[in-house]
Specification:
mainly alpha, 2 domains, Clc chloride channel, 443 residues
Length: 443
């Protein structure tokens, strides 16, 4: 016999209204991811038009664009800096709604999108996927005001669901969205959270599929590991990716934690807009040395390397590493996912020259997994997202092994996962700001 109270809850018009609002919110996350993707492509096209006019224009456009983005971030869209994933993780540990509003809001989501477009328009090495996590979390977090308290005790679940939906829609990787929610955001998978995450991923995916169709982010990479020496390639990509990713993370954590000493650290803290302009000039120099391949997300370059080899991309991984590091250090909004995968592809293609018997596609896919796991220290998310983006199920075990090796190597260099460390920095700054305000108030 059906419980009367349960039946009333299921048929309640108010509960159905709340469900419809939530479903509409998740569809909005998917559409926002689609618009973000289309806008990012347009922004990169715009920058290529600038290069077509003159290869020297980035020496003017990139410093000016990064300086403008840094100023807007600090004066108009506070809380929009960086990738967006650390802010989302930090929001899961903040109880005060006023503080939460400095990490997640529709204003920040709009700023994140617009300023990432600006960064790509001027050639910064950033991605849109990390920002989509913060945008998705902001959209679902904003639903609390329409739910009449239904989600008041479960804001954490809404934030996790929004972030997962953002990853799923941005990469067209629904399974990776769920794994990302478990490994990076929630670290647990409670019953209440699981339902919201699955629903959010499904509806966001429906919205993205409806516009962009079913596609693999980097195209289908049909390749295999081979016999014998193939597992040596796994070890090589895991160790190299872990070393490079670990050092990248350590540099970023130290820099954003304001522990850098000397003139560079002082300049970045006291003159952030001028420092961003200097980073823009450095990006233009790196771009010129790389043959203009280090700009943007790296999406087109990776697809070209997979299809045609790396003959036209000498030292691509190194130049992309430097460009991404400088872009993030400038303090502008922008993500690390796509550039990190591009760097990993560069690492894999470079290592392929040491192991010519292994297919190039295999080395690139393993390089992506190694470096990405080295940066994020999230091996589960890594192998799932690389597998789904390339539609390659023949190298699942090698991907898992590469990610695990890279994770272990990276932990030796950078003892704390990058996004967790950056999230803790956001929390400390929020707490110190509140303490300073309370101290300044007259007693």
């Amino acid at each position: 016999m059906i419980d009367q109270g349960r039946l009333q809850h299921l048929l309640s018009p108010r509960q159905w209204l709340v469900r419809l609002i939530f479903w509409g919110g998740t569809l909005s996350v998917g559409m926002a991811a689609v618009l973000f993707a289309l806008g990012a492509e347009l922004a990169q096209w715009f920058f290529h038009q600038i290069l077509a006019i003159s290869p020297w224009l980035p020496f003017l456009v990139t410093p000016a664009g990064l300086a403008a983005s840094a100023w807007l971030t600090r004066n108009v869209f506070k809380g929009a800096q960086g990738s967006g994933i650390p802010q989302t993780i930090a929001a899961l540990h903040v109880k005060d709604e006023e503080k939460l509003g400095t990490l997640l809001s529709l204003r920040i989501a709009l700023g994140k999108m617009l300023l990432t477009f600006l960064a790509l328009c001027c050639g910064a090495s950033v991605g849109r996927e990390g920002p989509t996590v913060q945008i998705g979390a902001s959209i679902l977090y904003s639903l609390r005001r329409f739910s009449r308290g239904t989600y008041s005790d479960d804001l954490r679940a809404l934030i996790v669901a929004g972030g997962a939906a953002g990853v799923a829609a941005a990469f067209n990787t629904p399974l990776a969205g769920i794994v990302f929610a478990i490994e990076e955001l929630s670290r647990t998978f409670e019953q209440r959270t699981s339902g919201l995450v699955l629903t959010a991923v499904i509806f966001a995916g429906i919205a993205a599929h409806g516009v962009l169709g079913n596609y693999a982010y980097f195209g289908k990479v049909s390749t295999s590991l081979g016999e014998g020496s193939g597992w040596l390639a796994v070890a090589l990509c895991g160790i190299a990716g872990g070393l490079a990713g670990g050092y990248f993370s350590r540099l970023l954590v130290n820099f954003t934690g304001r522990t850098w000493k000397g003139r560079i650290g002082t300049w970045a803290r006291e003159k952030p807009v001028a420092f961003a302009a200097a980073c823009g000039f450095a990006l233009a120099c790196i771009g010129a040395m790389s043959g203009h391949h280090s700009y943007g997300t790296g999406y087109e370059e990776v697809r070209d390397i997979i299809a045609n080899g790396d003959a036209d991309y000498p030292a691509y991984g190194l130049f992309k590493f430097l460009a991404t590091l400088v872009s993030y250090m400038s303090g502008i909004p922008g993500g690390l996912f796509a550039p990190s995968l591009a760097i990993g592809a560069g690492v894999g293609s470079a290592l392929s020259h040491l192991m010519p018997s292994i297919p190039l596609g295999t080395m690139i896919v393993l390089g992506m997994a190694g470096y990405f796991a080295g940066v994020t220290q999230a091996p589960l998310t890594t192998f799932v997202i690389v597998m789904e983006m390339t539609e390659n199920h023949a190298v699942v075990l090698p991907l898992m092994a590469t990610a695990l090796i890279a994770h272990g190597v990276s932990r030796v260099i950078c003892h704390e996962p990058l996004y967790k460390a950056l999230a803790e920095q956001f929390i400390r700054r929020l707490n110190s700001t509140r303490t300073d305000t309370e101290t300044a108030e007259p007693k």
